[in-house]
Amino acid sequence: KQEVTQIPAALSVPEGENLVLNCSFTDSAIYNLQWFRQDPGKGLTSLLLIQSSQREQTSGRLNASLDKSSGRSTLYIAASQPGDSATYLCAVMNSGGYQKVTFGTGTKLQVIP
Amino acid sequence: EAQVTQNPRYLITVTGKKLTVTCSQNMNHEYMSWYRQDPGLGLRQIYYSMNVEVTDKGDVPEGYKVSRKEKRNFPLILESPSPNQTSLYFCASSPPGGGSYNEQFFGPGTRLTVL
User: Fold this and answer.
1) For residues A44 and B113, what is the distance between their CA atoms, to the nearest angstrom?
2) Average pLDDT, chain A
C-alpha cells in the first residue's frame, strides 16, 4: 500500500526566505505526483504536476523535483511571501493498472512579515 | 468556465437518512474521484472512476456508493450515513494524457455533518 509522508508537519519562516518542503512515498510505481496548496476552510489549488518521466517542473517562484528511485519529491519556494502561508499537500497517483491517489498529510507553512 | 461543481456545499443530516452528494465537471475529463478530509488524517480517496461505467475502490470505500453513468457526473451516495462519516468531501476530475492522467482539478468541497 502506498504511503506518503510530508516533513515537516509545520514550518514558520520570515518573509523573503527560500524554503524546501519534502514529500516521500514508499512505492515508486507512480504515474505522477502533484503539489497542491490549501488555504484554511478552502478547497485545493493545484500548483505543479510532475509526470513519472519528468525530473522537475517550474512555475514562477515554485520548483518541484521528483526522484522516483528514492521515492522523494521536493517543493522549493523562492523568496517566500506572507501570501504563501497555507497548507501544502503532495499527492501521488499510482500506476500498474489502477490509478489510486494517495495524499500526504501536508506541511502547514506560515510566512511571517 | 471550466470547473468541478459539488452540491450541496453544506449538509446536516441524521443517522440513517440516505443522501447523495452530486459532482459534475464540464471539462470532458475521464477520471473522477471522491475524497474525504479529516483532521489529522488528511485527504483519503473513497472511490474513483477511470471512465463511464468504470469505478473502483479507493482506501476508504466502506459506507459509500458511487455510479458513473455519464462522463460529466459522479455522484457519491451514502445509503445509511453514520456520525463517523462527518467530514469534508471533495470531488476531483482529471483529463487523460499519454497513457497517464494529468493534473486533478478539485471541486469546492461539501461539508457533511451526520448527527
Assistant:
1) 21
2) 93
